[in-house]
Amino acid sequence: MPVFNWVALKPSQIDGTVFTELNDEKVLQELDMSDFEEQFKTKAQGPAVDISALKVKATQKAPSKVTLMESNRAKNLAITLRKGGRSVQDICTAIETYDQQALSLDFLELLLRFLPTEYERTLIGKFEREQQPLEELSDEDQFMIRFSKIPRLAERMNVMIFLGNFSDTAQLLMPQLNAIIAASMSLKSSSKLRNILEIVLAFGNYMNSSKRGAAYGFRLQSLDALLEMKSTDRKQTLLHYLVRVITEKYPELTGFHTELHFLDKAGTVSLDSVLQDVRSLQQGMELTRKEFMRQDDSPVLKDFLKVNTEVMEKLQADSKTAKEAYESAVEYFGENPKTSPPTTFFPMFMRFIRAYKKAEQDIELWKKQEAAAKEAESSPPGSQDQPELPIQKAKRQQMDMIAELKKKQMVKEPLIYEGKDGAIEDIISALKTVPFTARTGKRSSRLFCDVSFNEESPL
Q1: Dihedral sign of CA atoms 226, 228, 230, 235 in order
Q2: What is the reported pTM?
Q3: Is residue 94 within 8 Å of 102, Cβ to Cβ?
């Protein structure tokens, strides 16, 4: 059969869920899965098989071996044992000695699903009373017989899983509890935050006094409304105005958010789930102590209790402190701890802090723009103080170059008029007196020559 890619829950994750009320094995017993296997088999399974023919052949065979388990359950157990990669004896010995190195946590959690049922224990007892040979049983049934002989099997399995998960679970829970404690205490002890809320209350009462009357407090979600209320010219919000007032009149309050710690981390914590996990760890610790009292010669249990008892006590103390600190902070700000989880309570302050910082940036930008506008108005249009644009600079350089070339040309022009006996001056005078012919673009050579000869005719 192909693999169904779902996200499976671990046994420790289904406590209190609907899955504890479901019995998938009962469904498999009630249904004929042959059609399903035919419809969803993989190509590696080969061509379709005639199920009815197989059933006929099965009836003609010798009586099947004795079975102690339902067929699908036996198949699943066989798959699990193959994943473990160890012999029946090695698996059972590891469970009896709490050997966590021999068996992985994943394998233990899978194997926990195959604890012998009362019906299977009844069949095993009947099989042993009849003294039938073990060779008649499948490998899975033989494993189940050896598996059922382990004293307090369920308790041992649960203890082993608890031992393997304790360290990681504790390291996961401690930072979450610390974040709740730190965030709750910093909110409640911040004097700057109290003063800012006082200013918000004052402005709110001032705005509502003529219509709704004075209020003694407000819900924290009302802080979001500071961004929705805009001024008459629609250029700023009520929060912008409050930030201006605080900056000018109460500058000591501007850095109020520096007194608040771990709000972002605390806002992601599900406190109820964390407290439930701590209680589960405590129950596992109690079960481990009971097992150690029954089997005090186990070095594994002895070392675990010696190292982790203090850790468990700290977890319990921190969980109690976190619960009390959080409830106290929520009630302090007029909210209800039952309806305001950390994922709702702390983000309200985080949104306000982000909006406050954004308003500060907006006001600073507006001040710079106003200063630049005033400076532009006060400077004359042709002031040299104004920076020269790249286009203006290039044009100025071009004009300077043209002026330089003209200057050089004016220096050389007198050389053109230098000639013997003033001949060149005479030629220029002639050019001025002879008309220009537009059609040819040339002057009359005849007239030019006549003028020249006339001037020299006395010779």
Answers
A1: positive
A2: 0.65
A3: yes
